[in-house]
From TrEMBL:
Pfam families: NOV_C (PF13020). PANTHER family: PROTEIN NO VEIN, WU:FJ29H11. Residues 580-665 form the Protein NO VEIN C-terminal domain. It comes from the Eukaryota. Residues 430-472 are annotated as: Disordered. InterPro entries: Auxin_embryo_med, NOV_C. Signal peptide: none annotated. GO terms for cellular component: nucleus. This is Protein NO VEIN C-terminal domain-containing protein. One of its GO terms (biological process) is leaf vascular tissue pattern formation. Residues 431-443 have a biased composition (Polar residues).
Length: 693
């Protein structure tokens, strides 16, 4: 019985210290450890077998051993219990230290364990136990330098008889070629298209918790890649289906002009990917073609197989081999995201696309080359390439020469093989841009009187100044409502005295915490207003009129002409904005310390979609955009499409500082953290303003 053997091994362990013989050598030289063949009471006589220490282990942390034993009992089969902790629970030190029994199963033990399990259970019954074994392998194999265990598992899986991989169709398979393609699903949407396909078997690990899924996509995914088990996304490619072609010069020129920034970004942030691309895949650039089409679709295909998805999917950009397809309507960000697959092993990189999109947006908005370079180097921390690095380039035919259609009376356009992204030295703005919009009280809107007049008679033609169109009272406009023509010339330093009184309004934050059950809105689009309920007490909101106190005090009088008023208005707007940024910066420095707060416009106007950068203790970066005004009852402000897009990308890492400057050296700040979330909580509202031409 087990009791008798326990007493024997206890006697041996107690006398081992005084024994003149080498217990470990004696036990390992022969099969001397008894293990029962069936589960029985410890006092009952039971069939068993004597095994050597190397054929046993003390405990199985995966639980696979107990699961195997349970299924074997159901089948009324006999096999030696190799896990000793359940048979001799009080003799751990004796067996592991004195006798040399391994504390946990070896890799070979687990292979044998899974083989035995596959003979008594269905994959769907024990898939999670197989997952636990894979987690153990991933931990053990990748934590030691010895790769013999990895080679052993890989060689074992190549054998026809080692069917230890559970599949979605409830059958056991190995990686032997006779079983066809075996992969694991890293994309549930893709799996839906191929789960009924006879050309592929999906490994299943049962229902996984969120923590297990993280392990699957991390350590276990790396293990399966080493074992030759591919992810579904790596054996599926997208096949382009397109109709019609169009001129590709615009998109080709854009990519060609941004290629130096692509190289700099990858060199700085993805050095391993850069080295691999430079050494093994650099020819992708010279072979790349861009084809612009009228309509573009794709379907999923299994590599090396005839199987494909039954549906086709509309898209705007698609990289297939050396060809980058794009529709005429494809936006630049989608183009950059698809281009990133060239450098990152077929996977899109969102940060890569965001970086290029910001550079491109600055360039086409008229930001000077010097400002773009300052943004790339200082704000994005992407320096110039070392001189010894070879500069990447596309082929000379990447941007083709224009060839007019036959019968069309058009002249050829000369193009150069050298592609340049034009970066103007002055900002440009489109004609008729209206930089204001109505708040929730429409009577205070800058253009309200004009709207009323339109009810009684036709409007006279209005000439719009493309540099500054500033409707309504001066006090209702703020600096962010207009785009000045030259940010370098309009910039000037601002320094606040120490006796400024700056208060922070936290009412919005308090309301956000209390209204946790507010219904959410659909995806918001543009321009916002805020409630003025939490404004400081020294502001008189009852009159509904603008504050009489101005931040600016110009001693020289401007001529009372339309041009003079416009110049005065622009100067006042600029100073209000600069003072607002200085107020926000001073307030944040007092709260967080100077080393954690940086005013990006302190020395020059950068044109970025934010004004202040905050560095937190965990190296997290937050961005603050300042919106300043001198009007107490103005609960709306203009936000650009670029600023809103940046807010969506950054989420909780983006805030708007609404600064209300009033009185002599007095200001109030309302921090709007994650304005997108505030819109969903109905604590901010968005509106669109139609430009009047």
């Amino acid at each position: 019985s087990v009791d008798q053997m326990s007493k024997f091994y206890t006697f041996v362990s107690e006398g081992a210290a005084d024994a003149k013989i080498d217990i470990k050598r004696e036990f390992t030289s022969c099969s001397s450890i008894f293990t029962p063949l069936i589960r029985a009471r410890s006092s009952e006589v039971v069939h068993g077998k004597f095994l050597s220490p190397k054929d046993l282990y003390w405990h199985d942390p995966t639980g696979c051993s107990e699961t195997t034993e349970e299924f074997v009992l159901v089948k009324n089969r006999m096999f030696p219990r190799r896990m000793l902790c359940s048979t001799y629970p009080n003799l751990c030190e004796f067996f592991t230290e004195a006798c040399g029994v391994p504390k946990v199963p070896t890799t070979a033990d687990y292979v044998e364990m899974l083989l035995r399990l596959s003979k008594v259970a269905l994959p769907s019954q024990v898939a999670h136990q197989v997952f636990r074994v894979f987690v153990r392998w991933a931990t053990d194999i990748h934590s030691v330098s010895d790769k013999n265990d990895l080679v052993y598992v890989k060689d074992s899986l190549q054998k026809l008889e080692t069917t230890i991989l559970p599949t979605l169709v409830d059958k056991w398979v190995s990686l032997h070629p006779s079983f066809g393609l075996v992969c694991w699903s890293d994309d549930d949407e893709l799996k839906q298209h191929f789960q009924n396909c006879i050309d592929v078997d999906f490994i299943q690990f049962g229902t996984l918790s969120s923590e297990d899924k993280q392990i699957l996509y991390g350590r276990v995914a790396a293990l399966m890649k080493s074992l030759g088990i591919p992810a579904l996304s790596k054996v599926v490619h997208r096949e382009a289906i397109f109709y019609g072609t169009a001129d590709n010069r615009e998109k080709a020129t854009l990519l060609c002009g941004l290629l130096p920034y692509m190289q700099r970004y990858i060199y700085k942030t993805h050095r391993d990917a850069y080295i691999n691309f430079q050494q093994n895949e650099i020819m992708k650039l010279s072979n790349l073609q861009i084809i612009v089409v009228e309509k573009l679709f794709h379907k999923y295909m299994l590599k090396g197989h005839e199987s494909s998805s039954k549906k086709r999917f509309k898209c705007h950009c698609l990289l297939q081999g050396n060809i980058l397809y794009a529709t005429q309507e494809a936006d630049s960000h989608s183009l950059f995201l698809e281009t990133s697959r060239i450098f990152f092993d077929g996977s899109p990189d969102l940060h890569f696309a965001n970086f290029l999109h910001m550079v491109k947006t600055m360039a086409i908005s008229g930001t000077s080359a010097e400002q773009v370079e300052s943004f790339v180097v200082n704000n994005q921390n992407v320096p110039a390439l070392p001189e010894e690095e070879a500069v990447w380039s596309f082929s000379s035919s990447f941007v083709p020469e224009f060839v007019p259609d036959q019968g069309v009376d058009s002249k050829p356009v000369e193009t150069s093989s050298a592609c340049v992204l034009n970066i103007h030295k002055q900002h440009q703005r489109s004609d008729g841009t209206v930089s204001s919009w109505p708040p929730n009280n429409w009577r205070t809107a800058p253009d309200f009187r004009t709207s009323r007049r339109s009810q009684h008679g036709p409007l006279q033609d209005t000439k719009v100044n493309n540099d500054n169109w500033l409707p309504g009272p001066l006090q209702d406009i703020e600096v962010n409502d207009v785009e000045l023509t030259n940010t370098e010339d309009n910039w000037f330093p601002v320094q606040l005295d120490e006796d400024w009184v700056i208060e922070e309004d936290t009412s919005l934050e308090s309301n956000l915490h209390t209204e946790s059950t507010v219904a959410t809105l659909d995806e918001p689009q543009m321009v916002m207003s805020i409630n003025a309920d939490g404004a400081p007490a020294y502001l008189d909101l009852g009159t509904g009129s603008p504050s009489e106190t101005e931040v600016m005090d110009f001693s020289d009088k401007m001529p009372n002409t339309s041009e003079g008023r416009e110049r005065l208005r622009a100067a006042q707007l600029l100073k209000t904005g600069r003072v607002g940024e200085a107020v926000a910066y001073k307030h944040l420095v007092e709260r967080l310390g100077a080393k954690n707060v940086r005013w990006v416009n302190a020395d020059t106007e950068t044109g970025l979609p934010y004004d202040i950068i905050i560095t937190r203790g965990d190296n997290r970066i937050e961005y603050v955009e300042v919106k300043a005004t001198t009007t107490s009852n103005k609960n709306w402000f203009y936000i650009t499409a670029r600023e809103w897009q940046f807010a969506l990308e950054k989420g909780d890492d983006f805030s708007i500082a609404r600064v209300m400057v009033s009185g002599e050296k007095m200001a109030n700040i309302k921090m709007l953290k994650n304005p997108h979330k505030l819109c969903q909580k109905k604590m901010l509202h968005l509106a669109l303003l139609i430009a009047r031409r």
